[in-house]
Specification:
The complex is a heterodimer of chains A (374) and B (477). Chain A has 374 residues and is of the alpha+beta class. Chain A has ten helices and 22 strands. Chain B is 35% helix and 22% strand. Chain B folds into three domains: 181 residues, FAD/NAD(P)-binding domain, CATH 3.50.50; 142 residues, FAD/NAD(P)-binding domain; 70 residues, Arc Repressor Mutant, subunit A. The chains are: A alpha+beta (374), B alpha/beta (477). Chain B: GO terms for molecular function: oxidoreductase activity.
């Protein structure tokens, strides 16, 4: 028996983007239904590194990142839990003079963006952050960046949205989205939902849906390669990154060191894992960066399917084809911190027809525009 | 398929020797069968010596005889050990080697002694990873001096020492009596055997037990021997708690009449039969199904031990607990299926006979389940302060309150929220107990709680290991 339902907005995907969109829509008094194929926050939103970092983001993304930062600052009021969020600082290390130059240039370019970056040379760094041994020549510290537990936080956004009056359906895949000329008709195995607005926040699976809507994007799945050590005495206060990539890590309050870097492995449409060659590359880098880990043990690895676009920017945009359709996906490697900012922007777009934060760089049609093609 | 540059694309190799993981009764018989048909398998074993847990071999220079160590099973143990020693020169044998991951058609190995790592490609693979204790904790179980039954047995067989000088064995299942007997026989002081199964269950099961009269007779013998030697055996008990300050000093329990009893002791061996070790099968992508007999999810197999993954065969307890004798049979069956799939002629009559023997064991297993029923009321009685997951110190109360907010009951979600099964053991030890508590809290069948997803590494991996070579081809035999 198919249940009929009418609402203002249907959000496809109960990850951090979809759930925070629903939450901010409810705060604006708008009716919303969230459809999640599995469990809310069980995919990329719940399996990522947990970095809550603005440092290192592109200039185009910083305003949005700052807007998200405001929401992180009042997280408990927003979703009712802090999910191990702390402004522990994010520290980016340079292993060569060239990398240090790159950190200096970034600090100059972003001087007016509110990151308050502190540049440290080798001596100052070793005094303040006794890590990394001799191979670290300097670094850049962002004191108000931090970390949180995505396993707790992403489901909490969905719970908060539900508490605020969103109807959240888990284990509810979307079979079809059609438009009857007046409204969208969204079909699931046991529901037919009519809505004026549809938000595509389906993460790694959002590209398929965009393609069905006639606006394909060159999205590829990029699985992160995550791992965690056994719990160790607490020694690492900051979330750590390395300029140029390769390895990043943080220590949770329980004592485990969570790390990532390099590619994972896509097993099939829904599953991903870390890969053995990546693990072999990660472990020595980790021990080199943090000699405290020399005798530690790796207890678990994981990954998830994340969508990435060629210019490394996400899609946050109204559809170029269908009025009432909105997209928010393609955040591989950086969506977690943006989550509350994206939700707020999407709700604003839907409610007011415009965003007060610049999001032009994230238009869905940027890949079909010849001037932007690569 | 979704688009990715990081897609797993690893076609099955056209050639290469068969690989066997595990050198217990199943792995040894599989190796023997393959050799007899002209194939030279690679045998990977985590232990330093072949034999598995049940026929675990001693370090060099160990003084006690097989008869002392294995009792009735001495003949079988010696036969398996000798078989392996005789075959060893023809095998590509790799002891002290942990398979920590499976990726496509590669196994990732850690050579524990040297802390080196490499990979081994496989074309066909017999997984004989065995079992571990099924643990249902009691308050106080994390005190020093409390062991699992299997752990107590390994201490005796492998290290020649007892877990304490005054021991209580508690729980249920055939292993309870076997270990108590072995301890008492070896000169250990066994203060009590506390069986949660009511005595009446034994009589109910007796007719079906006669499917395997010799095995049943052994059970009767152990029990009689213990009673004849004045070891108190209590049926239908409830285990209340282990007590002690710095280490265990007493077991407190309720007898069948409901009176509280206290047995002072220096050690406790605790266990409720065994659970299959299925992580490798999981990482290999084998399909699982809930098996009511085992009260857990097990990888699916056909009558000849083929898994759902082409080229992967599951032998021994890893696909469902059947015991050591059945492990030998299933090892041979798995090897014969592999040979058949390679187009090598096998003896159909022999296969039919092995299948029939396994069917008989299956009937006997059902009877054992009647004789030593899983304590259905364990979860309901577990107090809130009971530590269920000792790696992460998660209590029954925390599990219950987490479950209360998760009507779906999925154990992976509950793991994410409260850290149960997130420590060094990755749920191997606490998974059974956690599942029981969740099912009881939500009042749903155990099957609905699901199973903890396998994630590499199967066991903790040293961060400072050295990678020897990325993809080593198995040597051709």
């Amino acid at each position: 028996m198919v249940k009929q339902l009418g609402t203002e907005v249907v959000v496809i995907g109960g990850g951090i983007m979809g759930a925070s969109t629903a939450l901010f829509l409810r705060q604006r008094g708008i009716q919303v239904v969230v459809l999640e194929r599995d469990l809310c926050g069980s995919r990329s939103s719940g399996v990522n590194f947990g970095g809550v970092r603005r440092q290192g983001r592109s200039l185009a993304m910083l305003p949005l990142s700052q807007r998200a930062h405001q929401h992180w600052g009042r997280l408990t009021a927003l979703i009712g839990t802090e999910a191990e969020y702390e402004r522990s600082g994010h520290f980016k290390i340079a292993r060569s003079e060239a990398d240090m130059d790159s950190l200096v240039r970034y600090a100059e370019k972003t001087r007016d963006c509110g990151l308050d970056l502190q540049l440290l040379d080798g001596a100052a760094l070793h005094k303040r952050f006794p890590i990394g041994g001799a191979q670290v020549v300097g670094g850049s510290f962002c004191p108000d960046d931090g970390q949180a537990n995505p396993r707790l936080l992403s489901p909490a956004f969905a719970t908060a949205a539900a508490r605020a009056g969103a109807q959240v359906f888990e284990h509810t895949p979307v079979l079809e989205v059609a438009h009857n000329g007046q409204r969208f008709v969204v079909r699931t195995p046991d529901m037919e939902i009519r809505a004026n607005v549809v938000v595509n926040a389906a993460g790694a699976w959002a590209g398929q849906f965009a393609e069905q809507c006639g606006e394909p994007v060159p999205m590829r799945i990029r699985p992160p390669a995550m791992g965690v050590t056994e719990p160790l005495p607490f020694f690492l206060h900051w979330s750590l990154g390395v300029e140029g990539g390769s390895i990043y890590c943080r220590q949770v309050r329980r004592g485990n060191v969570v790390f990532g870097g390099g590619p994972g492995l896509v097993l099939d449409d829904t599953r991903a894992r870390n890969r053995h060659t990546t693990v072999w590359a990660q472990l020595p880098q980790l021990v080199e960066l943090l000699p405290q880990l020399k005798n530690a043990q790796l207890i678990r690895t994981w990954s998830g399917n994340e969508g990435a676009l060629p210019d490394h920017e996400p899609i946050i945009s109204e559809s170029s084809r269908q009025a009432g359709l909105y997209h928010a996906f393609g955040f591989a490697g950086g969506g977690f911190q943006l989550g509350p900012g994206v939700g707020d922007v999407m709700a604003e777009l839907i409610a007011q027809g415009r965003s007060s934060t610049p999001i032009d760089a994230f238009r869905i049609d940027r890949f079909s525009d010849p001037a932007c093609s690569t | 398929m979704i688009g990715s540059d990081f897609y797993l694309d690893d076609p099955r190799p056209a050639d290469g020797p068969p690989v066997i993981v595990g050198a217990g009764p199943a792995g040894i018989r599989a190796a023997q069968t393959l050799l007899a048909h002209g194939l030279r398998p690679v045998v990977i074993d985590e232990a330093p010596k072949a034999g598995g847990q049940i026929y675990r071999r001693q370090p060099d220079g160990f003084g006690r005889t097989p008869k002392d160590l294995y009792g009735f099973e001495a003949g079988r143990a010696s036969d398996l050990h000798q078989t392996f020693d005789r075959l060893r020169p023809q095998l590509d044998y790799r002891p002290d080697t942990l398979v920590w991951n499976a990726q496509g058609h590669s196994l990732d190995l850690l050579h524990t002694a040297q802390r080196t790592a490499d990979s081994l490609r496989w074309r066909d693979l017999i997984v004989a990873t065995g079992a571990t204790d099924r643990v249902l904790p009691v308050p106080g179980w994390t005190l020093p001096g409390v062991y699992t039954l299997g752990g107590a047995q390994v201490a005796l067989k492998y290290q020649g020492c007892a877990i304490g000088d005054a021991v209580v064995f508690a729980g249920t299942g055939p292993l309870l009596y076997l270990v108590a007997y072995q301890y008492a026989k070896a000169g250990g002081r066994v203060l009590a055997v506390l069986d949660t199964a009511p005595a009446v269950q034994r009589y109910k099961a007796a007719p079906a037990m006669l499917a395997q009269p010799t095995v049943a007779a052994k059970g009767v013998y152990f029990l009689s021997w213990l009673m004849f030697h004045d070891v108190p055996v209590h049926h239908g008990v409830q285990l209340l708690r282990a007590e002690g300050a710095d280490r265990v000093q007493a077991m407190v329990w309720k007898d069948a009449q409901g009176a509280e009893q206290r047995t002072n002791c220096s050690a406790i061996g605790l266990g409720y039969a065994l659970r299959p070790e299925t992580q490798l099968a999981d990482l290999l992508g084998c399909e699982f199904a809930f098996a009511p007999l085992h009260r857990c999810y097990v990888p699916q197999i056909d009558a000849d031990r083929r898994s759902s993954v082409p080229g992967v065969y599951l032998a021994g307890d890893g696909a469902g607990i059947m015991g050591a004798d059945a492990a030998e049979i299933s090892g041979e069956l798995a090897a014969l299926a592999l040979l058949q799939d390679r187009g090598i002629k096998t003896d159909a009559a022999r296969q039919a006979k092995l299948r029939q023997q396994l069917d008989k064991t299956q009937q006997f297993r059902q009877a054992l389940e009647v004789a030593f029923p899983f304590p259905d009321d364990w979860a309901a009685r577990a107090p809130d302060e009971l530590v269920v997951c000792r790696c992460e110190n998660i209590t029954a109360g925390e599990l219950r309150s987490t479950a209360a907010s998760q009507p779906q009951g999925d154990i992976n979600r509950i793991k994410a929220l409260c850290r149960v099964g997130m420590g060094r053991c990755q749920g191997r030890m606490c998974g059974v107990a956690a599942t029981e508590i969740l099912a009881d809290t939500l009042q749903v069948p155990v099957a609905q709680i699901g199973r903890i997803r396998g994630q590499a590494p199967i066991k903790p991996l040293p961060l400072d290991m050295t990678v020897v070579s990325a993809d080593q081809e198995a040597s051709h035999g």
